[in-house]
Amino acid sequence: MTDSSNAEILAPMRGEIIGIGEVNDPVFSGKKLGDGFGVKPTEAQVVAPVSGTVTMVASTKHAVGIKADSGVEVLLHLGIDTVEMDGAPFTMNVAKGDTVTAGEPIATMDLDAVVAGGKDTTAILAITNTPKALESLSVNSGVANAGDVAAVAHLKGAGASQNTAQGTGKGAAVGAGAGAASVAAGSVATGHNAARAGNIEHTNVGANSTAQALDPAASNASGTTAERPAHLTGYDALAWDILNNIGGAENVKSVIHCITRVRFYLKDEDKANDSAVSNLDGVIDVAHAAGQYQVVIGPAVEDVYDAVVRQLGDGKAGGETASDAEPAERPSGVGGWLKWGFSSLIGVITGSMMPVIGLLAAAGVLKGILTMLTYNELVDPESQTFTIINAMGDAVFYFLPIFVGFTAAKRLGADPIIVAIIGGVLAYPTIAEIAKGEQTGSLLGIATNAEFFGIPFPMASYTYSIFPMIVAAWLASKIEPVLKKYIPAVLRMIFVPLIEVFVVSILILVVLGPIIMWISTGLANGIQWVYDLSPSISGLIIGGFYQCLVIFGLHWAVIPLVANDISTQGHSYLNAIISATMVAQGGGVLAVFLKTKSEQMKGLAGSAAIAALCGITEPAMYGINLKYGRVFALASVGGAVGGFLTGLFNVNMWGFTGSLIGFFSFMNPEGLDGSWTGFWIASLSALAVAFILVYLFGFKDADLATERVVEKKRLGRREPVAK
Known about the structure:
By secondary structure, the chain is an alpha+beta fold. Helices cover 46% and strands 16% of the residues. The strands form 7 sheets. The protein has an 8-stranded antiparallel beta sheet.
């Protein structure tokens, strides 16, 4: 074959041919997997676009790979995000190894079912070995029948016919290379992780590795190998090592991440080698809590998480499915069920709140800046400038039900868009106005201010709320499967959201919402009552022990209480105490930074101190403070002192962001008061006490020699790892 050789590529389906750049998926449209085109289909029949050998058929039947006789390697992806439909809309008439002729029927796609499932029907064809085989591609845009010439590939001569499985390259240059990382278990639908994968080098990633990537069932059954593949480097190598030491990919049900930890849900935690994982370069520690196997990474957590997802596939990313949420072993007894229920609740709160924590923190800083501008008379509270900036700070809180509804639905397996709409119902301005209305009657001795078809009920205000939306997402996850079971596929697109939004919204507004808000308000009032008994003693106790909750991952149960305080009262005394504990842990690790002569320890301690003073304590605690136990204990003494002074001076907090970086949050919007002064006294005292105690008694360089034998704080089980 010469450099001027051409190869015709047929339309795989009847419909409108569009350029690859018009495809509604950033991975394909960005040509991360190679050049190609899309088809907006009007008929279900799928034909082979080229003559050649089938190299892969996804287990979910949404994708097929063909190596053409010309040397072109073709990936045909039916629909966008359709991997989530578990093969239901597809029939596949070919298998790996089959020989096909261009124009030969190979599959069908039920277009109505795909649309009813809320997915895009666009069929996408990508030439995965574009850099090696393709000089250029001419696409014939417009309406075409299945089997018509849709594009002409202008080939690169001899290089086009060579087996790319023997080469090495980057991204799409190696055919399946980028595909293997990018579209694992359908990650092409999400784009974000796959786009990163396209720039990572791969070797020996020909058609077979493409097959394994798109079809996890085709992968190595054991999920582990004795030796890490030589081509994996950096975060990809670390991800492989982690997976290899937690029982392999097949032992992972799902994976999420927070600010510092990659959180795995494992089928069997006993298969994980805690010692091996915790001693990996790049891993700070391992923790067991809330039904999760938590690998503490620190600031690089997103990079490690992305690398893990590339190797697992996006089908296991972002939270559990409903079936995954079931415990591998059913608990027994009341205590067992309570423990499992509490762990599950913490897991749901973690998955629901983690994506919006940064937004809440940023909004808190913005509101603090506005307070400072107003206090210094740089912005008039009656001006439109104030209104605009205030809206920027308030929006995330006001519309919190929408955001939490979306993230909780993803966590619990419901449709995120539908549940977000339910959140919009709860935050709807007219509903918020009704909640402010005066009492119009009573029901069972409870004051009511609204009615639904003549039934009186207490309408609560749901802006700023969290718990009602978590319950709404749970209800939706139970109702949705029933609706899909009984509503015909052609009617689902309209009637599933219609019924779901109506039923769940009514249940939350009329029945469950008032109960949930009463409970959450009661919790906030209870905390306030304990605080009012003795603010200083409460601060002393909470300040001394709060960071212990962080060790066990149980602080996620407290965060919604803080958010509820801010939403119902506009401020939070509890969060002010928590802030002091962050500063104290930062002070402890700062002492290590200044005392040690080890350059490696200085680097770790310095970055951990900065993170703690910016409100993220895990790197400090897991990287140093807990590893050298006296550091954590003495830093906690500093936290107790800071908490005591916080309570003594009645320090209040009007924002979400704590530690030293959150000083804006301690500025009263109505004007600076004692909280501002008290914050600095308490925080600097916590910092000084923790620093002095650790510097004098908590750490010495001789401890570095015994670093590996110092017992780390574990969550959950503590039995020794089998040798």
